[in-house]
Amino acid sequence: MQTAKHKIMKKKTIKNAEITLSINDDSDFLSKYSPSDKPVISSEVAEFLENAAREFHPKAEIKLTVKGDCVDDKEKPIYAEAIKNYFVLKHCETERDIRRKTFISIIFTIIGVIALAAMFLVDGIFKNEIWTECVDIFAWVFIWEAVDQFFIERSGLLMRRKRLENFVNITVEFI
Question: Alpha carbon of 101 to those of 10, 89, 115, 159, 168: distances in Å?
């Protein structure tokens, strides 16, 4: 019985994410299109970091160890800031998507409820079952879409936002 309890306790602890990035040539580390006052990493580096972090829990704090002789002391703070800048931009984009999905789900819910009320009006006034069913289907489509937007699609964005927050607060160590 104690081993089962130990396994449950072990699953509840979230280990920190430790990612190692080896650099042989840093010419493509920064995006060629980033402004000089606010550098961002290249999409290839970002994809590597996001893929490496997938094995860890989204709430896990991320520590990045960059190995490579090609990065000089002048570039180290620029690269660390570029990593954070990239993920700050992604975090802002995700926040906008969350707000958009929330707004859309509220609008769809209102449309669905109004359509349900209209269904009762159509049923009371016209006594036409075909029109009543059409309005009923219309209403439930909007209500379902609101549920889908708010509970299903938005939940993935909330998890992505948490992971991006950890990337924004990443600890970068150069070796």
Answer: 35, 19, 21, 14, 23
* 24-72 pLDDT, tens digit each: 998 899 999 987 789 999 999 999 999 999 999 988 999 999 998 889 9
Amino acid, single-letter form, for residue 79: Y
- The C-alpha atoms of residue 174 and residue 168 are separated, in whole angstroms, by 17
Q: Which among 90, 84, 93 is positioned nearest to 170, based on CA atoms?
A: 84
Check: CB of residue 149 under 8 Å from CB of residue 112: no
Cα 86 to the center of its chain, rounded Å: 14
Reported pTM: 0.81
For residue 14, the 8-state DSSP code is P
